[in-house]
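Reviewer 2 asked us to include a model.

Predict the structure of this chain.
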Amino acid sequence: MTTDLCSLTAIQLLALYRAKELSPVESARAVLERVGQLNPVLNAFCLVDAKSALASARESEARWIRGAPLGPLDGVPVSVKDLILTRGWPTLRGSKTIDPKGPWNDDAPAVARLREAGAVLLGKTTTPEFGWKGVTDSPLTGITRNPWDPRKTPGGSSGGAAAAVASGMGPLAVGTDGGGSIRIPCAFTGLFGIKPTFGRVPAWPPSPMGTVAHVGPITKSVADAALMLTVMSQPDARDWTALPYDGRDYREGLEDGVRDLRIAYSADLGYARVDREVADLVKKAVRTFEDLGAKVEERDPGFSDPQETFSRHWFPGAAYLVRGVPANKRKLMDKGLCEVARRGERITALEHFEAAQKRNELGLVMSRFHERYDLLVTPTLPLAAFDAGKGAPKGAKGWVSWTPFTFPFNLTQQPAASIPCGLTRAGLPVGLHIIGPKYAEARVLRAAQAFEAAHPIAMPDLSKLAK
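Predicted model (structure tokens):
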């Protein structure tokens, strides 16, 4: 057994618990020690509850000794993004405008399901204020950094979640994705993450960003994500938009490979500008699917840049959100979020309705596209991680401008995942984006598992991070 318990996946931890070769208490202590070492450098957690985590781990240990685990994640350390309600802990959403006194009496659906499955909840991970942008810094928690290079951003808005998993501060993290917020940080930090079909993972309270916002797992293996999604997709009556529960175990069929799948490869969706080094790594990665027996064809899906359509959905949500903050507290907020909210206020009802119609058209384009192709693959992002503390790379205007591959599939509500496919010459990860038709999470996971088997996910060298 490896001596670095923090490098183990959830699947590996569970196998060792089952064999009585490792205790959940040992695992929790190792992870908490790692948090103590690296969180001062990376700023991935905004709240750590070591006392509660160790108490949960001791309860799990007793269950494993009796041979009666509570559920499929019993004893596995998990972190929760600080947009998601967690009973007993403040959910401050990266904002100075929220009163930490609470009360905090509720678990969001995903957290409730993880707790019921026996997961050891470690704490809350950092997010930009209200999750509004594609990097992770906030007025409340400051700048979160990338384990591959702390001078770089881990992306966002689930940047704390990704930085935690990539640095061994727990194998599993709950993220949210309203325009790429799971896939962006997974691409920048070399992890696997999936945005399921909208409604697959019940959510409550509903996001102010409406029906583009998804909840999903961030992990260091596809199998871990399949297990986590199996747990989180269980029903919760508080989300009336949730999909009917189908009882699926996403681990079933995970190893079935991609032979005879029809895969479309689009280097730029027909309009995006992509860094040459990123484009080359993704193109090389796509050949893996051909080697594994898939039928790969270069083909753009056939829609124009939907940035305006997305903005006219997302910006009014920001305006609604900011309007709910008392006027005397708005001076405490991220100026960028307030500017987006002002832009949202200027979008008329007619413009929003027109955007809804264009969204329908985009969804129809992709629905017909998937009649011909089982999957679409693209780069996850057009660039590798840029400097921490910057809201966008040089020359870009706003986070939507540098995330052309992610937000379209929030509009269409399709399942989409990012898996690492190589490193730049500077040693930074690049993500491969795998998109399936609605409701086809299992197919996306199956393709990602085949790719991971051919190209195992590597973790960063953390020796230079410890203070």
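DSSP finds 13 helices and 13 strands in the chain. Residues 349-372 form the longest helix (24 residues). We have added this to the supplementary material.
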